[in-house]
Design brief:
Elements (H helix, E strand, L loop, with lengths): L2 E5 L2 E3 L5 E8 L6 E8 L6 E6 L6 E3 L7 E6 L4 E6 L8 E9 L5 E3 L3 E5 L2
Parallel strand pairs: 2-11
Antiparallel strand pairs: 1-3, 3-8, 4-5, 4-9, 5-6, 7-8, 9-10, 9-11
Protein backbone atom coordinates (compact mmCIF):
# COMPACT_ATOMS: atom_id res chain seq x y z
CA UNK A 1 0.00 0.00 0.00
CA UNK A 2 1.45 3.31 -1.13
CA UNK A 3 1.59 6.00 1.56
CA UNK A 4 2.93 9.54 1.57
CA UNK A 5 2.45 11.21 4.93
CA UNK A 6 3.30 14.89 5.32
CA UNK A 7 4.04 16.48 8.66
CA UNK A 8 5.56 19.64 10.08
CA UNK A 9 2.98 22.19 9.03
CA UNK A 10 1.48 24.74 11.38
CA UNK A 11 1.12 28.40 12.23
CA UNK A 12 4.23 30.57 12.04
CA UNK A 13 4.89 34.29 12.10
CA UNK A 14 6.26 36.11 9.05
CA UNK A 15 10.00 35.66 8.88
CA UNK A 16 9.83 32.34 10.67
CA UNK A 17 10.80 28.85 9.57
CA UNK A 18 9.21 25.44 9.24
CA UNK A 19 10.49 22.08 8.09
CA UNK A 20 8.06 19.81 6.30
CA UNK A 21 8.63 16.07 6.07
CA UNK A 22 7.04 13.49 3.80
CA UNK A 23 7.51 9.94 4.96
CA UNK A 24 6.78 7.37 2.26
CA UNK A 25 6.22 3.64 2.02
CA UNK A 26 4.90 1.05 -0.40
CA UNK A 27 7.06 1.94 -3.41
CA UNK A 28 10.72 2.09 -4.41
CA UNK A 29 11.52 5.58 -3.19
CA UNK A 30 14.86 5.82 -5.01
CA UNK A 31 13.09 5.36 -8.37
CA UNK A 32 10.94 8.44 -7.91
CA UNK A 33 11.54 12.13 -8.31
CA UNK A 34 9.95 13.93 -5.40
CA UNK A 35 8.25 17.28 -5.34
CA UNK A 36 6.40 19.64 -3.07
CA UNK A 37 3.33 21.42 -4.39
CA UNK A 38 1.11 23.92 -2.64
CA UNK A 39 -2.40 25.26 -3.03
CA UNK A 40 -3.29 28.57 -1.45
CA UNK A 41 -6.81 29.82 -0.74
CA UNK A 42 -8.60 30.40 -4.04
CA UNK A 43 -5.52 29.46 -6.03
CA UNK A 44 -4.51 26.58 -8.25
CA UNK A 45 -2.03 24.00 -7.08
CA UNK A 46 1.53 25.01 -7.99
CA UNK A 47 4.92 23.34 -7.99
CA UNK A 48 7.17 24.62 -5.21
CA UNK A 49 10.27 22.47 -5.47
CA UNK A 50 11.43 19.17 -6.90
CA UNK A 51 14.39 16.87 -6.46
CA UNK A 52 15.71 14.10 -8.69
CA UNK A 53 15.53 10.49 -7.54
CA UNK A 54 19.25 10.54 -6.81
CA UNK A 55 19.11 13.90 -5.11
CA UNK A 56 21.55 15.20 -7.69
CA UNK A 57 19.43 18.05 -8.98
CA UNK A 58 16.78 20.36 -7.61
CA UNK A 59 14.40 22.94 -9.00
CA UNK A 60 12.46 25.72 -7.33
CA UNK A 61 9.66 28.09 -8.14
CA UNK A 62 10.94 31.63 -8.50
CA UNK A 63 8.80 32.70 -5.56
CA UNK A 64 10.70 30.47 -3.12
CA UNK A 65 14.25 30.48 -4.49
CA UNK A 66 16.76 31.36 -1.82
CA UNK A 67 14.24 30.72 0.96
CA UNK A 68 13.20 27.06 0.59
CA UNK A 69 15.41 23.98 0.33
CA UNK A 70 14.26 20.55 -0.76
CA UNK A 71 16.23 17.47 0.28
CA UNK A 72 15.74 13.73 0.52
CA UNK A 73 17.06 10.78 2.49
CA UNK A 74 16.77 7.65 0.37
CA UNK A 75 17.70 5.50 3.36
CA UNK A 76 14.67 6.83 5.26
CA UNK A 77 12.34 7.10 2.24
CA UNK A 78 11.66 10.67 3.24
CA UNK A 79 11.70 14.03 1.51
CA UNK A 80 11.96 17.36 3.30
CA UNK A 81 11.21 21.00 2.62
CA UNK A 82 13.04 23.53 4.75
CA UNK A 83 11.18 26.83 4.58
CA UNK A 84 12.86 29.99 5.85
CA UNK A 85 11.89 33.66 5.77
CA UNK A 86 8.27 32.70 5.43
CA UNK A 87 5.79 35.22 4.06
CA UNK A 88 2.02 35.43 4.37
CA UNK A 89 1.75 34.52 0.69
CA UNK A 90 3.35 31.16 1.50
CA UNK A 91 0.14 30.22 3.31
CA UNK A 92 -1.20 27.09 1.64
CA UNK A 93 -1.75 23.38 1.93
CA UNK A 94 1.53 21.72 1.01
CA UNK A 95 1.44 18.38 -0.80
CA UNK A 96 4.11 15.78 -1.32
CA UNK A 97 4.32 14.22 -4.79
CA UNK A 98 6.18 11.21 -6.12
CA UNK A 99 6.72 10.62 -9.85
CA UNK A 100 8.45 7.56 -11.28
CA UNK A 101 11.51 8.44 -13.37
CA UNK A 102 10.46 6.24 -16.31
CA UNK A 103 6.85 5.14 -15.90
CA UNK A 104 3.64 7.10 -15.49
CA UNK A 105 3.26 6.36 -11.79
CA UNK A 106 2.35 9.37 -9.67
CA UNK A 107 1.42 9.43 -5.99
CA UNK A 108 0.20 12.23 -3.73
CA UNK A 109 0.11 12.83 -0.02
CA UNK A 110 -2.89 14.19 1.84
CA UNK A 111 -1.36 17.61 2.49
CA UNK A 112 -0.30 19.64 5.49
CA UNK A 113 -1.47 23.17 6.26
CA UNK A 114 1.05 25.98 6.54
CA UNK A 115 -0.24 29.33 7.79
CA UNK A 116 2.00 32.38 7.94
CA UNK A 117 0.40 35.11 9.99
CA UNK A 118 1.14 37.51 12.81
Amino acid sequence: QVQLVESGGGLVQPGGSLRLSCATSGFTFSSYAMSWYRQGPGKERELVASIANTGGSTNYADSVKGRFTISRDNAKNTVYLQMNSLKPEDTAVYYCNAKHVLRKYVFWGQGTQVTVSS
